[in-house]
Design brief:
By secondary structure, this protein is of the alpha/beta class. It has helices spanning 32-48, 52-76, 82-93, 97-106, 108-116, 125-129, 139-145, 150-159, 182-196, 204-210, 237-251, 293-314, 346-355, 366-383, 417-426, 443-458, 473-484, 492-495; strands at 10-12, 16-18, 163-164, 167-168, 257-264, 277-278, 285-286, 326-331, 335-341, 388-390, 394-396, 403-410, 430-438, 462-468. It is built from 18 helices and 14 strands. Helix 4 (97-106) crosses helix 5 (108-116) and helix 8 (150-159) packs parallel to helix 15 (417-426). It is globular, with a radius of gyration of 25 Å. 38% of the residues are buried. Residues 1-53 are annotated as: Disordered.
Length: 502
């Protein structure tokens, strides 16, 4: 039982994860790795000659390995314990098995240090839920480490060491793109502007096929009735193989999926850009000829439901969402599961469940929304005999559990995004499709889009899209649905069918 398992480490905001072992003596062992590597190179000569110095180095190594073995056994238990299996599944999910094994063998001091900091196991539920544990470092630490917080530091360690099919996903070490300094703000503005310039006019034939008189920007007195430039979307061929394999499994009945929505409802969603928007990171106030983001999102969700609800009622899946609609979680300063949305009562539900929700407005804290998604989804899965909750590591999937295809809609970079990226990297039961909506040619929007593109590049469970300004809604809806549904997504004729118009 869970109660009989080995107790996991406790987290301290100042000292990291508190494990057994001589953490106070770690400093005096900083040279052990180099000593071991040097002694390996010269072992044939020195051991044969009875070198006491080399024997001393090897005794240090044996002592260090003994500490590692004892610490792992104490906190993870034997190989048949639930905690040990959770940790090993985490290694597999993050594609970092080879790195930990190599590090443990060749650099035991480094491995033991990272072990004591909790890097070798999933983040705890307490750490995920407590925003103070992922808060921004002091300026002096940011300049020293190059990271905004512990979550970002740990995320980039994983990204720089994970391998897929034995090939490092980051051949050259990568670093965060922006920090809190005037130079970096300038750099983010420059990058965002450069990306904005990559946008291309949408082909007139595409506009003819997908344009709708009900697109959100046409409902306001805009100066221009033209659609904004479309940002090129690069296909990640490695990532593409994953939903293709999943589609085959769904087709033959060995795999199933569930659908949920996670939507940003923070204060920035309701800002009217026609009255002026204070831009970041350049600090320029812009008056923009486009609707509020919340109006665009409302339109997009209504269009999405036209296709999602019928598909979910047709799934031969006892765990699929019923005709009552698609489950939705909203987040801002707080997060809430608002129930199922459908097309029949959409206007009422949007007004009563979304706009009037207690969490509407405030700061975008995506980790709170993500935790509600996990709780809602796993509680449903438990009624079907899948999944369980571990007291330290939180919700855990079990073999045969349906995968969650989660559509996330954002209008900027939420708080605790690094912890979210880190948590998402650990999970193998969820496919995430992220849509970023934003202001036309805004450097802030495009610098955030660059971050998301980086996320999808290094996490094969994630797909990202972004739209700006005057949006060709049925085109982006088609792209989103192709990502959300690995198998049998809506066809072009369904997308443009007048019966599915809003």
């Amino acid at each position: 039982s869970v109660a009989d398992e080995v107790a996991p480490p406790r987290y301290s905001p100042t000292h990291g994860f508190e494990f057994a072992g001589d953490t106070k003596d770690l400093k005096k062992h900083t040279d052990v790795d180099n000593e071991f590597n040097n002694s390996q190179e010269n072992s044939n000569d020195k051991i044969g000659s009875g070198s006491g110095q080399t024997r001393n180095k090897f005794s240090k190594l044996v002592d260090f390995n003994a500490k590692i073995n004892a610490a792992e056994l104490k906190h993870w238990g034997p190989s048949d314990s639930r905690v040990y299996k959770i940790v090993m599944q985490y290694w597999i999910n993050t594609h970092i098995v080879d790195h930990w094994l190599d590090l443990r063998e060749s650099k035991p001091a480094t491995y033991f240090k990272l072990f004591n900091q909790g890097y070798c196991e999933p983040i705890s539920e307490a750490w995920a839920n407590n925003r103070t544990l992922g808060e921004t470092y002091a300026d002096i630490l940011i300049m020293k480490t190059g990271f905004l917080n512990l979550g970002e530091e740990r995320l980039y360690y994983l990204l720089n060491h994970l391998k897929i099919d034995g090939i490092p996903i980051c051949p050259d070490p990568i670093r965060p793109l922006k920090f809190n300094s005037s130079f970096i703000r300038y750099d983010a503005t420059k990058r965002g502007t450069q990306r904005a310039n990559l946008g291309k006019p949408i082909d007139s034939e595409i506009i003819r096929l997908y344009a709708s008189p009900h697109d959100a920007f046409l409902s306001i007195p805009t100066k221009s009735r033209e659609y904004s430039h479309w940002m090129p979307h690069k296909v990640n061929e490695t990532r593409k193989q994953m939903p293709e394999a999943l589609a085959e499994d769904i087709k033959n009945g060995s795999e199933r999926i569930e659908i949920m929505l996670l939507v940003d409802m923070s204060s920035s969603m309701t800002v009217n850009p026609q009255n002026g928007v204070f831009g970041r990171p350049d600090g320029i106030r812009r008056v923009l000829d486009q609707p509020c983001n919340i109006d665009l999102v409302k339109n997009l969700i209504r269009r999405l439901l036209k296709h999602m609800v019928p598909r979910n009622t047709q799934l031969d899946n006892p765990g699929a969402a019923s005709c009552a609609g698609i489950p939705k979680v909203t987040f801002a300063t707080h997060a809430e599961f608002i129930g199922n949305l459908n097309t029949k009562s959409f206007d009422y539900d949007w007004s009563e469940k979304v706009v009037q929700a207690k969490n509407f407005g405030g700061i975008a804290r995506i980790m709170r929304g993500w935790q509600v998604v996990k709780k809602t989804y796993f509680e449903k899965m438990q009624t079907l005999g899948h999944g369980y909750h571990h007291p330290h590591y939180g919700w855990q999937a079990t073999p045969g559990m349906p995968k969650l295809s989660l559509l996330i809609i954002l209008d900027g970079e939420p708080n605790n995004i690094c912890k979210f990226k880190l948590d998402l990297l650990e999970e193998n039961w969820v496919l995430a499709t992220i849509l970023l909506v934003g202001y036309e040619n805004c450097p802030y929007h495009h610098s955030n889009a660059i971050e998301l593109e980086r996320m999808r590049k290094y996490n094969l469970n994630v797909e990202c899209y972004d739209v700006q300004g005057h949006v060709l809604e049925r085109l982006i809806v088609e792209n989103l649905l192709n990502s959300v549904y690995p198998y049998n997504p809506p066809t072009f004729s369904e997308i443009v069918d007048p019966a599915n118009e809003i």
